[in-house]
Each structure stands twice: as C-alpha cells, then as structure tokens.
Please model this.
Amino acid sequence: MRLQPVPLLTLAIGIIGANSMVLPPIAAAVANDLNARPEQIIIAMSAYGAATALSALFLAPRADVIGADRSLRRACALLTLALVLTALAPTVTLLQGAHLLAGLGAGMGLPAIYGLAAEVAPKGQEKRTLGKVLAGWTLSLVGGVLLASVVADLVGWRWLYALLAGLTALLWLLLGRTQINAACGGTPTSPLSAMRVAGVGRALFSNAMLMLGFFGLYGFLGIHVAEGLGRSTTSAGVLTMFYGSGYGIGSLLLPKLMQGSRETALTLGFGGLTLAHGIIGGLSGTYQMLLVGAGIWGVFQAMTHNAVLDRLNTLDPRQRGAIMGLNSASTYACVMLGGVLYALPYNSYGLMGCAALSVACNMMGNAEALLPRRQATSDQISGSAD
Model:
C-alpha cells in the first residue's frame, strides 16, 4: 500500500526539525557529560548551521535534476549516520563533527520538503498544503523537544540521539513506499542563477531577519532557564513546548490571519514577534511570563514563516530547488551566526540583551515588508482558505 505524501512530509519536518532544535534545551546536560562548557555545545549548533547552509547552496539544487523525493531520501540516509555518530561521540570535538555531517543532510532535506509541498499540492491548494507540512515544526517543538528534555533527564542525551536516528531510518523506509513522482530531469541550476530571479534578494532578507531573530534568542533560552533561573532541563523543554503549541495554533489560524496581502501578513507577523520578544526580554526573570511570551512568539512565528516560504516558492517554479536551497542556506547561516552574535549580548546583559537584538531584527523585517515592490500583484494572497 502506497502512503500519502503530505503526512510523511509533515513527519519529515518534525524529525529533521527536532534534530535542529533539541540541542539548546539540553546543552547544559551535554556539556556536563562531556566535561565542556555550554558555549562549546552551542558551537556544535553553529557547526550544524554552517554545514546546512553550504549543503543547501550546493547540494539542494540537485533536486531539480534528480527529483526532490530522491534528494529527501538521500538526506535521511546521511542524517541517520550523523545521528548515530552523535549518540556515540566521546568528546565535544567529535560531537561538533557529527553535527557538521547532520547539517549536510538537513541542507538537502529541508529544501526538498518545501519544494515537494508545492509539487504534491492540488491545484489552488498550495498554501493550505504548505501550512500542513509546516505543522511538522509543531511536532518537532512540542513532541520532539519536550521528549528530548525528558529523555535527557531520565536516561541521558545519548539515548535521545539514538531514538532520533531510529526515527530517521524509519522515515527513509516509509518514503520508499510513497508515490510522489516529483519532477526531475530539469536543467541543473546554481545559487548564482537563482539569485538573479526577480525579488529573491528581498525575500531572502526577510527570511534572514526572521530566522536570525529566532535562532539567536532560542539558542540561549535553555541556558538561561538552567543557569539564570536554576530550573531543570525539563523546564526548558516545557518552555519550548509552549512555543511549539503557539506555532501549532498559528498554523491552524493561517487561513484567517493571511486573508490580506502578503505584505500585511509580514507586517502583522513581525509586529507580533516584536511584542513576544519584548515580553521575553523584559520579564526574563519570571519563568511564567517566559511561557506566555513563548506562546505568543510561536503564533506569530508560524504566520511569518508561512508568508516568507510562500513568497519564495512562487518566484520561479523552474528553479524551486535552487531557490529553496538559498532559503535554507540563509536560515542556517542564521543558526551559525546566532550562536556567535548573540553570545556577546547574553554575556553582558543576559537574555534581555538577546531579546533586544531579536526586536531589532523584527523591525528591519517589518521595514522591508513596508517598502513598495515593483510587482505587487504577484505578492497577493488569496482571501480564501486555500
């Protein structure tokens, strides 16, 4: 029996997304086990981001030639190997190396998933289908990260990565039983050719502001909860669960929230993120208010993320693999930069400094959305629930 592609793509986002999100909440526990500082563990996250960015630039465009479905399966195989190596890593250096390898797989996998969401969607249902696939981030945040925190507390972080490796291998098997028939055999594209597509530069800037504001602040939440508030790893996981729940609620509300133009969705989204990050920064000493801020954060992150991806997906379908590769490259360049740039304000001002930097990112993203565009009609979003 052939499986339906959309639920599997949602699951793929959940598994790959969980791998990219589980390290910050358990950073203190991993550092303690490897006799390292938490900052060294966050460097592994930066290494993952750097490798993902490079892979998305130079490997993701191959999806336009071999088909995004085959590209996703190859990514799952590489991720499985990397997760096994992570579970076995005896030193922080080898942990960082395993995360580099995992980044190569994620850089192939995520653009393939986003491209497949558009390919398998019924005509006129592209945004609805993309919203369903993006709900996988809720799986990764609510289920994956909370499970990660609990497993790390109960049996250790190594068993967590062993579990992720098993789930990724299972995903590889299930994808082999799914009829997708992705487009392939196209002309090989490159990041350079994709950068010449009209509107791609501004869309990537919008994505970079969204993702830098997210990953920079998220990377230090777990450390703040453990060191600043003196709470457990599970508490950090619950905080992430509130964010993920908000993201899920935002995904459900997308048809209502995105009835106007895409510029309106981006403006409202970045504005809501500014509110959420203000709450997190201003009330960082109160765990309960962090939970409230995380929930609001998730709602508006879902809205803004969907608008950014839909904008990129519709620029040039012939180069979708290369364009979504550029998207993932900019996203994970932000993972890499977030750990470095946000360490400075965190060391000086704590989580409040990180939140202030994220507010600045939101304001720049909002400014871009408000600037006029030469082809405004291409950016309109249907008012229906498609």
Remarks:
- The first helix runs from residue 5 to 21.
- The radius of gyration is 19 Å.
